[in-house]
Design a protein that fits this description.
With 149 residues, the chain is mostly helical. It has five helices and two strands; from the N terminus they run H-E-H-E-H-H-H. The chain has one domain: Four Helix Bundle (Hemerythrin (Met), subunit A) (Up-down Bundle). Helix 2 links the parallel strand 1 and strand 2.
């Protein structure tokens, strides 16, 4: 039984909230890139800004947008797999370390991809570690419930 008093569940709640706030913050990073370059996706925004222009392919804006899209593709899977992983009764310390490492990896990924672009393998590692954690949790869920059948 999963309980809110379980330290693993509390850890999941903490890191899930950090990740949700991180996803929301990407809109501000996109706005920062747009305003610094004075390029906008809508005419009314460009007109409201001195010397603004409509442009859909600015490389700096698109880099932040790709990082945001990457979050939207990966973080919801973490929420699902993490919640299912909790139902397998993992050790609280193991679960907390997995959730912590996943969150750190996603934060680092944004930093090395959208904030201060760094050469590979920085982004690959920052993407790969959280991906491996999700695969690990998914495998644990499958093996736990497959053995119960």
């Amino acid at each position: 039984m999963v309980s809110l008093s379980d330290p693993a569940v509390q850890s999941y709640a903490l890191y899930s909230t950090i990740l949700a706030l991180k996803v929301l913050s990407m809109a501000f990073l996109t706005a920062r890139a747009r305003f610094s370059k004075k390029v906008f996706a809508n005419e009314e925004d460009a007109v409201a800004t001195t010397k603004g222009k409509v442009k859909y392919d600015d490389p700096d804006v698109e880099r932040v947008r790709r990082a945001h899209r990457n979050d939207l593709e990966n973080i919801p899977a973490f929420w699902i797999l993490g919640a299912l992983y909790l139902t397998t009764g993992p050790a609280a310390s193991t679960a907390a370390n997995l959730f912590r490492a996943y969150t750190a990896g996603r934060l680092i990924h944004t930093f090395v991809y959208a904030i201060k672009p760094m050469p590979q393998p920085a982004r690959g590692i920052a993407f790969g570690v959280p991906l491996f954690i999700m695969i690990f949790m998914g495998f644990k869920v499958i093996t736990f419930y497959a053995s119960a059948l």
